[in-house]
Amino acid sequence: MKGVRVHDLNVAKNGPNHYVRDHYPRPSQKDLQKVLNENYTSLLIIRDPFERLLSAYKDKIESTSNDYFNPFICNISKSKKDAFGNCRATFPDFVDFIISEQEEGRQPNEHWATYDEFCSPCQVRFDYVLKFEHLDVEEPFFISQSALISYFLTYELMRQSLTEIQYQDQLYLF
């Protein structure tokens, strides 16, 4: 990321991902089509919107392991705190927060933004669209259909780095 200082990423108001996206905006439909016409294989992995929303809540809001989201949690929970003084937000609090952010015209966080707000599913024709809920079947098929990928990567090798717990909890990775 030429020209981006680490300090700028660390102090970015909306976090490093938003900072980078502001400086490297999403490609236009024309740019995407040009790249896809250059014999690339395009892939989009989608997820049930409600599963995605619940996963975002569990991974980013309910979990206390991510310091970046603590201000979100306090804002969402309206500073309700647990016995240890940590802000805690319920799932209904989270849904109300998302609705109010939408009503106020604020850009949603990428983890709970809809696909059309975060990526460009309607602007390009993807070669493959996989459903997250069926990755155990669809991912090996995709790998087998992609000669270059299958030369370097197998489904087993890809999953080898995941622990048993991570594999069972993979719903919370996206």
From TrEMBL:
The keyword Cell membrane does not apply. One of its GO terms (cellular component) is Golgi membrane. Keywords: Carbohydrate metabolism, Glycoprotein, Golgi apparatus, Membrane, Signal-anchor, Transferase, Transmembrane, Transmembrane helix. GO terms for biological process: carbohydrate biosynthetic process. It is a single-pass type II membrane protein. Its EC number is 2.8.2.-. It holds the Pfam family Sulfotransfer_2. The keyword Hydrolase does not apply. It is found in: Golgi apparatus membrane. One of its GO terms (molecular function) is sulfotransferase activity. Belongs to the sulfotransferase 2 family. This is Carbohydrate sulfotransferase. The lineage of its organism: Eukaryota, Metazoa, Ecdysozoa, Arthropoda, Crustacea.
